[in-house]
């Protein structure tokens, strides 16, 4: 590495009096050389680095704790678990993940293609409606479907018997698919919009039919985008607890939750180790697909992609988008509105309902605010001082985002009980869980914002004698703040919806809307669950515009 | 620009205050010397709908603010984990086995109140640390449209018969009533036979649910022919506006049969809880006649205080053969029963 000696004094960033280079003992010189080369000659402000490292540490300790607990269980118990429990759970979990992912690809890609590339009537509206299932938490969706198709549901009351067995593998598949396909849809739609028309036209001019062009040209180009969406879906299926438990299915995540009520937490930790391993494999796959995303923007002429006339397929295409929207948005909403009205008549909105609402808002609000404060140093470090250490920190922060909430809570319980008993039994546990789970949403938003701010600005400020710390606060922060606040809004909404960690970590008497929805839905008190569910959906709509712009 | 910074520091400050303000220490400061507080923390393995009316009534009568955490048997572990830092004062349990287990693990405090003497000593701990409040019998409820009494199993062991395959519902093995029931069966049959029973029943069951509420709905709706429940679930289904054509069979009533397993729900006094005085008040309150009536008329259970009226459809304990196993004996073997259930793989199964 070549070191710009010119900056020797400037890089001395934590205001130590500069020393003569020659007087430095050898070891110190070697250290500082290593330090310089680690940061490619641009070492960061120490305070920012320390804050980032502290955040990453907070994020990783609970997970490490779980892993250590799980590993330390002893060979005998591991063998017992592999013989009895793990194969079945693996099969349950992976088969569900595979089928749901396949289903979301089918629906998501078709939907995206229809609204972006064809002359579908009203496609502007369909484009928005296609994303809407994203705001319905799957456990709410599951509740709605049980009300419709369940053994004591509407369909049975009208027709005498229900055609679908909702409490079955395929029932779970349907619910999970309908409420997670927007991940695939949004990313694919964005990618479709960026495709260069030249490629397709070249293929078409060779006399190929469009169907073949789609299969041979368009799909391969979409593969990275579809892959990224599919990974998001699979990670979601791996980590979901609410919908799966309401639908009487058992995946690893549900098993861990139930194990937390078994005779010790060790088996829960052991199952968590396996699930962490599975999640890491998925993450690695995602990283591979992300590496391969290349937008095919070769120089020269970029033109808007052509619109394909649907012709005689039009009715079928319309039927498809209509059916998807019906099952993913309108039916569940109709059910919820119907039961909310019943609830209103029966006094579901009482003082305690507002108490749960306030609880939800307070905890989510604190988590959102803290996430802004914690995200800033990480964002700044990644943008201005890229290095091995930085990307390691980033991966650590991202990994707890990908892990199921039950594992995060398990770790948090361990850690707080051992080292922070004074905070045990307070909402501090909830806030920690939300930050561990959703901080990356804030950092990603911040990264998008800071990428538009030129580093020359900080450099200019520093050359005028500001410390890097001050130039970050006075120059970069105000310009990045809107982006980070959008990220905080996402954290807020995710925290409002969060279920498993909230169930496991809430203090006595501190129920949130999500917890109430789950409790009432599992008891069959739909008139009490529906108003809370509607409220959560309403709050989730707020940052939707921002999400739509993101992809 | 600096004003932004100020706002940030201010927000951070507010946050620390909020978090600090929510910690229990802040409340402790306001207590006076006799340990008198104005709060009570109740952990309940019983469903909210059974506990909430009692809690609300207590709040109203005593002016104490009750914080209720209604969950499931996982709370037994939570209490043990919190032993060095107790968060709750009262544990409301579905079965006395779990309470006795907690007592053996030294998580409960003795209670010398005179008021709990009204409960038969069969149904309370020797040191008063837990008290049974209401009894429940384990019965088969069935759907009269689908089957009749003569086609139903007459003993619990009959559930292993392949002719009932796919016809009935049971709860997950993690369910408190189920654990206690298995513990009682184990005392009667020994390890091997009990494990065989669990494995076969798991195989034969059409539905395995999280709790008994799902079973009564499933039987009522005709999803399955019958299900193994606590008796009051059957009484509740009779009160439903639809799907209420159900009846019940009391199993194991033959001359040489073991009789029905009767369990009790009750409360335990948690050792070192933050509001001990209120906890004792609450236990006394629950043993009063009025509250006992709530058990028999609202949750349709069998009250344990002598001379309390019950609903017409609830059979009094004296009318059927009951297993002769003191409930206290379930405590020491509660863990073994759980282990047995785990080995047989019923603990996580939901279908």
Automatic annotation (TrEMBL), chain A:
It is found in: Cell inner membrane; Cell membrane. The chain crosses the membrane at residues 46-68, 88-116, 128-149, 169-192, 213-238, 266-285, 316-341, 361-383, 395-416, 422-439, 475-496, 525-548. Residues 1-21 are annotated as: Disordered. SUPFAM superfamilies: MetI-like (SSF161098). Its main location: membrane. CDD domains: TM_PBP2 (cd06261). Belongs to the binding-protein-dependent transport system permease family. This is Iron(III) transport system permease protein. It comes from Desmospora profundinema.
Automatic annotation (TrEMBL), chain B:
Belongs to the bacterial solute-binding protein 1 family. The keyword DNA damage does not apply. SUPFAM superfamilies: Periplasmic binding protein-like II (SSF53850). It comes from Desmospora profundinema. The keyword Repressor does not apply. Residues 1-28 form the signal peptide. This is Iron(III) transport system substrate-binding protein. It holds the Pfam family SBP_bac_8. Keywords: Ion transport, Iron, Iron transport, Signal, Transport. InterPro entries: Ferric-bd, SBP. PROSITE patterns: PROKAR_LIPOPROTEIN (PS51257). It comes from the Bacteria. The lineage of its organism: Bacteria, Bacillati, Bacillota, Bacilli, Bacillales.
